[in-house]
Amino acid sequence: MMPTLLQILLSEAILIAIGVFLLWKPDLVWKLEHFLDVKGGEPTDFYTGNVRLLGTLMLVGAIVFPILMLALND
């Protein structure tokens, strides 16, 4: 069963929103992940770099995903 256009657009919106959030606010992502584990800690540069890389990959996926879905649909 192939996804409908609405499902593809909804997944696109979700991927773009998460990707932009990861790119702009990696410190907030760290705080959301570790607010019960660490008191007064800060993320390392390695962590923030990896979170930004993940955000970039999600935005690239948001571009590639619909192209693949439309190509498989035909």
Main sheet characteristics: none
**What string, H for helix and E for strand, traces the elements in order?**
HHH
**Strand residue content:** under 5%
Q: Give average pLDDT, whole number.
A: 88
Radius of gyration, in Å, reads: 16 Å
Residues in helices, as a percent range: over 70%
Overall geometry: elongated
Low-confidence stretches: none
Total beta-strand segments = 0
Assembly type of the chains comes to single chain
Structural class from helices and strands?
mainly alpha
Distance between the termini: 13 Å
- Number of helical stretches of at least 4 residues: 3
Give a structural overview.
By secondary structure, the chain is mainly α. Helix content is 78%, strand content 0%. The protein is built from 3 helices and no strands. The longest helix is centred in the C-terminal third of the chain and has 29 residues, at 45-73. The radius of gyration is 16 Å and the shape is elongated. The two termini are 13 Å apart. The mean pLDDT is 88.
